[in-house]
Every structure is written in C-alpha cells, then in structure tokens.
Amino acid sequence: MGGRPVNPAAIGRVDLVGGGPGPIDLMTVRAWRLLMRADVVVMDRLGPTDVRDHLDPGVEVIDVGKLPGHHPVPQDEINAILVDRARAGRRVVRLKGGDPFVFGRGGEELTACVAAGIPVDVVPGITSAVAVPEAAGIPVTHRGVASAVHIVNGQSEMTPATLAALRDDAVTSVILMGVGALPRLVSDALRAGVPADRPIAIVERGHHTDQRTTRTTLGAVVLEAGRIGVRNPAVIVVGEVARAGMLVPDLLAAGSRSGGTSL
Ligand code: SAH
Which residues form a coiled coil (predicted)? Predict the structure, then answer.
C-alpha cells in the first residue's frame, strides 16, 4: 500500500474514471483532479497510461491490464480490489480507457461498489468509438451520408440488428475489439447481404504518434489487414463515412499526432 497516512475509520470511495483514448490531454479536468488526489489508482492496458509518471510516489498503482503471465486480472478480482481498498479508507480511482460505460465493464464495477455500500461515482471519458475514427478524419455521422451509429463489440456474435446496420448504407457501424474476429465478422456480413464494396477504415492506435489508417472495402479487408499486419488496439469503421475522400481525410489523417502534451 502507498505511503500516505490513512484514517482507518474513514470510509474511502471509488471513482470510475474514463481516461479517453490515450493522450493525457484528452482526459477531463475532473479525471485529472481525482487522479491527483487519489490514494490508489487501478489502471488498464489502454487509455492514458502515461498518467503513472505524474502520480505522487506514495500512490499505490495497481495494473490490472496485465499480470506477469500477461493475463488480465479477472473482473471479480478487480471488483474486490476496488471494494477492499475503499473499505480501508482509501480514495480509489479506477482509470479506464475511453468511457467507463462503453465496453468498459464499468457497470459491473459500479454494481459491485453499490452492493458493498461504497460511495462511488462515474466520470465520463472520450470514447474511442467516436474519437479514434475522428483522429483519422472520419465523422461517425455526417449530414446526408450517415444518420445513425451502431457500436459493436467485435468479439460477440453478430446480432440481426448489427447485420441490419451493416446493410443500411445510411448507418455507420463502429467495431471495437474486432481485429482478431475480422475474418468471421466479414464472412457473416457478406453472407447476410452486405455489399462487398462497402467502405471500411481500420484505425490502429488512434491519437498516438504511430496511428495508422487503412481504407479498403468489406470484400478486401481481410486480405489487406493480413498483408499489412493490422494489430490491436484498432477501431474498425464500416460505412460510407469511411470512404476515402468523403470529407477532407488527407488534411486530417496526414497530420501527425502529438501523442498528447504533458501537463
Ligand atoms: N471503454 C473503451 C473501450 C474498451 S474496449 C472506450 O470507450 O474507448 C477496447 C477497444 O477499444 C480496443 O479493442 C479498440 O477497439 C478500442 N480502442 C481503445 N483505445 C484505442 C485507440 N487509442 N486506438 C484504437 N482503438 C482503441
């Protein structure tokens, strides 16, 4: 545990904090304030991991994105860490990539804290579902082009609603955690009648200095992704907004990323 004095009689608290897509300056001021007065910070693999360098040496940092064997800590263990530290009177920040409630399991952590009687709050973060396409100059909605957005976990089976969204050329589908499942997603989509020429963009490591955007089509994406070695983390955008030249992609996508400014 960290070196700060703790009053064991005092009940601690947990803040489930969205950290945005990576750069520190894409965090909210509230997130930063909470981090600067935290006793314990429970970190993820994604998001603003550089925050570590700004924390007081007395702060206990627990990285649940990875164990020594590279396995992530199971969710019930994370919940137990949050509850136990707060019960010991500590101010716990659970720092998450993006937004806590967008495929972040924030709902489970909130429920665990409430069930244990721990004061808990949720701080929104900039979700990669919107911010990563944006970093490549892709608006998830665009007047006259896309009027709805469907956000999907690529590791789940495709539901009829997801297939309908993919077939609808006025809907943008944004797939998170989809790199490993790409061949399955594409064959399901093609079999369900999504046209092979539907534009796709894959944006890897959005908002980082090594961000890379690949624009292709549904029919060609698996070969292309294999050829160039697409890797996680990446956001896959399917729909007309992903078409090269739809907006001013050369201007935006070519601009180098700062990777965040230091605070
Ligand atoms: N709660 C997070 C999402 C967690 S799921 C949010 O709101 O952003 C993790 C997935 O998010 C990754 O598999 C990837 O698809 C996406 N992701 C997160 N950060 C990213 C980044 N900087 N660049 C590309 N994809 C990212």
Answer: none
- In words, the CATH class of domain 13-126 is alpha beta
* Contact (Cβ atoms closer than 8 angstroms) between residue 48 and residue 24: yes
User: Any residues with Cβ below 6 Å from ligand 1, and which?
Assistant: 21-22, 46, 96-99, 102-104, 127-129, 132, 176-177, 203, 205-207, 232-235
Decide yes or no: CATH 3.40.50.360 for domain 129-242: no
- Residues that are catalytic: 44, 66, 177
Q: Distance between CA atoms of 174 and 181, rounded to whole angstroms?
A: 14
Q: 152-200, pLDDT tens digit by residue?
A: 999 999 999 999 999 999 999 999 999 999 999 999 999 999 999 999 9
How do residues 207-260 score in pLDDT, each as one tens digit? Answer: 999 999 999 999 999 999 999 999 999 999 999 999 988 876 455 554 445 444
CATH 3.40.1010.10 domain locations along the chain = 13-126
Residues of the chain with CATH 3.30.950.10: 129-242
With the most atoms of ligand 1 within 8 angstroms of its CB, the residue from 235, 236, 237, 238 to mutate is: 235
Give kind and range of the element (H or E) at residue 227.
Answer: helix 221-228
pTM of the model: 0.91
Enter the tokens of residue 161.
């609603």
